[in-house]
């Protein structure tokens, strides 16, 4: 009997090791065929702009009108910007990055056990993408995902290892919530909406995604994340310093987003593009890999509850007719998961 248990246990371990890129990447001197991108998507063939970068906004500037103008322009022209002097302590940023790197460094079996406590999947660890078709092209990453509303209702499903995980990540997500509210209020004011337009149901179901990208033997052939837009109002990203991997698509070329120590990358999601009736850009972006260093990022997704209606704000369609349909967030997600990068035509009014 013990022998059969050992065989089953070995099979489970083997399946986990196959599933997580971080478990097997070091065994390969080339990229497995299932991870090789089609020629037109490979980063080795794309033009990356030299000397160009996304805007940087100093939130510590006391001129509110100046900060508002910078954020609005960046959101209209790039859909991306970085923020400095944002009020989140350097210590908390470092603690968060360290505890998440420590999590991804644990043995596969332990990671899976710590992230599979909720049968409904509010917290889970997966490789490549959340809804994974094994016949589709795979992406060079592992991802830990969990809901993190201020109500704390899912915190008992979060990992308990490393020992400080829950305490550190709870403090971090609370700071991200405050920063997100601040940026959304500025954007709403700039659009001519009530400053609190995006509070409430539109931002009540935040999600934390931590991506881990192991070193890759052939970075010119694969991607850590494909060209996509985010299914969010707003995304706030903490990048690992000294590793350039995030790229934004603008005017037919890719712009690298160079990490700034203790800064956050902010990008407009498709939902805010709809609410603004197309004025703000949910910009396309991707993640490339490298052959030397592992990279970990922490993304805070500001998202609505499933039943929330997403539509152009009524105050913005008196002069400009709506170009997007009204849609519940759950229906939006269904389309997003099936259409991916080709979602926008499905959202437009006929």
Short description:
This protein is α+β, with helices and mostly antiparallel strands and 350 residues long.
For the termini, the CA-CA separation is 64 Å
Portion of residues in helices?
25-40%
Largest sheet report = 8 strands, mixed
Number of helices: 9
Morphology call: globular
Rg on CA atoms, Å: 20 Å
Overall mean confidence score, pLDDT: 92
Work out the number of β strands. Answer: 14
Which strand order spans the largest sheet, edge to edge or round the barrel? 1-2-10-7-12-5-4-3
Q: Helix and strand string, N-terminal first?
A: HHEHEHHEEHEEEEEEHEEEEHH
**How does the helix and strand content classify structurally?**
alpha+beta
What percentage of the residues does DSSP assign to strands (E)?
A: 15-25%
Uncertain runs: 4-14
Q: Please, could you describe this protein's structure?
A:
Helix content is 30%, strand content 18%. It is an alpha+beta fold. Strand 8 and strand 9 form a beta hairpin. Helix 3 (64-77) packs across helix 6 (165-191) and helix 4 packs across helix 6 (165-191). The protein is globular and about 60 Å long.
Key words describing this protein structure:
350 residues, four-stranded antiparallel beta sheet, eight-stranded mixed beta sheet, 30% helix, alpha+beta, 18% strand
């Amino acid at each position: 009997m013990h022998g059969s248990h050992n065989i089953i246990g070995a099979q489970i371990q083997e399946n986990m090791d196959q599933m997580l890129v971080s478990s097997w990447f070091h065994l390969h001197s080339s990229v497995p065929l299932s991870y090789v991108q089609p020629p037109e998507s490979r980063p080795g063939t794309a033009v990356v702009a030299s000397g160009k970068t996304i805007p940087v906004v100093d939130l510590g500037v006391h001129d509110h009108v100046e900060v508002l103008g910078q954020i609005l322009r960046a959101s209209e022209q790039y859909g991306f910007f970085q923020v400095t002097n944002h009020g989140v302590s350097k210590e908390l940023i470092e603690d968060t990055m360290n505890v998440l790197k420590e999590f991804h460094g644990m043995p596969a079996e332990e990671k899976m056990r710590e992230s599979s406590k909720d049968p409904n999947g509010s917290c889970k660890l997966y490789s490549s993408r959340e809804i994974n078709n094994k016949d589709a092209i795979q992406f060079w990453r592992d991802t830990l995902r969990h809901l993190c509303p201020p109500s704390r209702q899912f915190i008992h499903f979060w990992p308990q290892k490393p020992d400080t995980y829950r305490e550190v990540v709870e403090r971090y997500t609370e700071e991200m919530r405050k920063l997100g509210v601040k940026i959304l209020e500025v954007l709403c004011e700039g659009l001519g909406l009530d400053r609190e337009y995006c509070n409430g149901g539109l931002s009540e179901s935040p999600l934390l995604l931590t991506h881990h990208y192991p070193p890759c033997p052939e970075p010119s052939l694969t991607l850590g994340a494909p060209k996509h837009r985010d299914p969010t109002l707003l995304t706030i990203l903490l990048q690992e310093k000294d590793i350039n991997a995030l790229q934004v698509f603008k005017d037919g070329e890719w712009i690298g987003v160079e990490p700034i120590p203790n800064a956050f990358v902010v990008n407009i999601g498709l939902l805010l593009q709809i609410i603004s009736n197309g004025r703000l850009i949910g910009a396309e972006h991707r993640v490339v890999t490298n052959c030397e260093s592992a990279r970990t990022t922490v993304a805070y997704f500001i998202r609505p509850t499933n039943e929330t209606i997403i539509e152009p704000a009524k105050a913005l369609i008196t002069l400009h007719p709506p170009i997007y349909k009204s849609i519940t967030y759950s229906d939006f997600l269904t389309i997003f998961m099936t259409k991916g990068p080709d979602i926008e035509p499905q959202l437009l009014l006929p």
